[in-house]
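Reopening this one. Same input as before:
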Amino acid sequence: MKVKSRTGSCVETIAMTRTNRLLDQALEKTIKIQSTGKNVQPSQDLHEVMTQLSKAKDYLNAIKNISGLQNHDFSAEIEAAAAVLQECESLFNKLPCNSMKPSQVSLEYVRYEKQLKPMQGHLDKALQQISSRVLEAPVGVKGDLIELSVLNDTNAKVEPVFKKSLVLMDFLKEEGMIDGKGLNETISLGPAKLEAFKFSVSQKSSSGETSQTPSTENNSIEGFTRAIIQDNTAGDNMKTFTGNIGFDSGYKSSYTGTSTFLRNKIGNDGALFTGDIGGQAAVEMMKGMWGGK
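Same output, byte for byte:
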């Protein structure tokens, strides 16, 4: 049992180290973009993006500095945010600077300025993912026990930043499990309650209740990257999809960004699908997907 425990601790340490490295990189990138933004010609869309960058900085600093969050792996969400920040930095570097005269602002600069609003959609989504993941984290949970001191302290620090309580805190209050309990007590969740909590998390996550950023899911985002597939090596029958497969009637594509397929080595009968595929076409396509036909 001791060996197993050490292995688990080692895995957690590696995950936390990776998360911290990604956090530092994302924070550095955010600060750099904010500095660039101060030298860009002002506009309402620029102001909105700068506001989102400030929120991103607050979110990242919260994960970095709140001790109750440091035992949880947020690397996937931070990595996704870092990709958006990279895209944002690239756009900011192409925008007209404050020192430019109106006569120097070409149509190309104007085209880049128009991409600020779609960038808001990218940042919205990244912030939603971070917010949801943080609020749904099982803070203070060890096995079926909950350390209320850790939960209360973390919740008090998370709430001002993410504008909501942790899902676990709300769940315990709804279940009447912390009424009359001391701040430093440890309570047992029990297998049944633990499953109920997991179900509560899945329900709130699917309904978007844990997200604090207004959704821009149906906004068209033109001129931005939808997917980048590059430097891969694969055998025959490689199928690459960058869109959605199968969807209900009335579905609207979330964005129409570009897809890049670069320097990939593939065998025979490869296929690249960059758009959304629905209806009977999706049904027929999936029939032979895993059989190689």
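So the earlier flakiness isn't reproducible anymore. For the record, The chain has two domains: 2-207, 225-287.
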